[in-house]
Specification:
seven-stranded parallel beta sheet, globular, alpha/beta, about 280 residues, Rossmann fold, binds nicotinamide-adenine-dinucleotide
Length: about 280
């Protein structure tokens, strides 16, 4: 999608951090905005801020884990602006701690928002996006945590690797339809992610040992400005890039990871095996 002006973007988790950063950049580029978020007050404030700068913005309070509500949000978005061209499945949460101290409810909550939320967004909006073919794009927010595992992040890593895998498969499926697909894999960005527990539903609360607020608050404060991140995302959409990698400090470690996978293979493939693999995958 090269020309974004006058088109409509839907952003989940649009009230804060990376989502609001993207919203401000897209609005500046002339897009209409639909912000979906679970937190009504910051959501209303975010929409007011965009409107005060002359953008058209509609807020809808939605929990991305609720597929019914997401379907209703899709209908409402189309009704508000006549069409949706860009979907950013960005809402996410984090729970940190050693694996043996994390609970079943920790897993259910983080996987529910970070993975099922992305799937629900795609399911709800894909019929509308495919209607526009090459004039439509999906950006799913993963993380560098979707490309490399780190201590104390088993749940977050699992959810974000799943988002990368899901998005990569979706890209391969949508190549023929023309809808662009990207996966956003940032490092540390200034946001309220360390305070994720503010949005944890009562039924998934427990006496677990989540230490994400202590462990990541300071580093997130020192992170990239979400507006700069939003600019990078917009450029990557226009350039049709699948991986949106915003933090070059992770480049070396990801190279080493790729090299470790490469070094793990033994022998050489036969022609039939290669042909079968080429049939199953879609090259970048
Ligand atoms: N901040 C970072 O360093 C960083 C790095 C890599 C990836 N990410 C990812 O970026 C995305 C945005 O996070 P952020 O850092 O801007 O944090 P944030 O907390 O500032 O923003 C997340 C937004 O998602 C909303 N949200 C949470 N649960 C929701 C739900 N169930 N339904 C709808 N909305 C919900 C929150 O209310 C909030 O507005 C997340 O997917 C996160 O995992 C963040």
């Amino acid at each position: 999608m090269k020309n974004v002006s006058g088109k409509t973007a839907v952003i989940t988790g649009g009230a804060s951090g990376i989502g609001f950063g993207m919203a401000q950049v897209f609005a500046q580029a002339g897009m209409n905005l639909v912000l979906l978020d679970i937190e009504p007050e910051p959501l209303a404030e975010a929409a007011d801020t965009l409107r005060a700068k002359g953008a058209k913005a509609e807020p809808f309070t939605v929990d991305v884990t609720d597929s019914e509500l997401m379907a209703q949000a899709a209908e409402a978005s189309i009704k508000a602006f006549g069409a949706v061209h860009l979907l950013c499945n960005n809402a996410g949460v984090n729970v940190m701690g050693p694996f043996n101290q994390l609970t079943e409810k920790d897993w259910d909550w983080v996987m529910g928002v970070n993975l099922n939320g992305v799937v629900n967004g795609c399911r709800a909006f894909l019929p509308e996006l495919t209607r526009h073919g090459a004039d439509a794009h999906i950006v799913n927010t993963a993380s560098v945590g979707g490309l490399i595992g780190m201590p104390n992040l088993t749940i977050y890593n699992a959810s974000k690797f799943a988002v990368v895998g899901f998005t990569e498969a979706l890209r391969a499926e949508l190549l023929e339809v023309g809808v662009g697909v990207s996966v956003l894999c940032p490092g540390v960005v200034r946001s309220n992610l360390a305070l994720s527990a503010r949005n944890r539903p009562d039924r998934l609360k427990d006496a677990g040992t989540d230490n994400s607020a202590d462990a990541s608050a300071e580093s997130i404060e020192m992170g990239t400005d979400p507006i700069d991140l939003g600019r990078h995302v917009l450029q990557s959409i226009q350039d049709g890039e699948f991986f949106i990698c915003t933090h070059p400090e992770f480049r070396e470690v990801l190279r080493a990871r790729g090299a470790a996978i490469d070094a793990a293979f033994r022998g050489t493939p036969d022609a039939a095996g290669l042909e079968a693999v080429n049939g199953m995958t879609r090259a970048f």
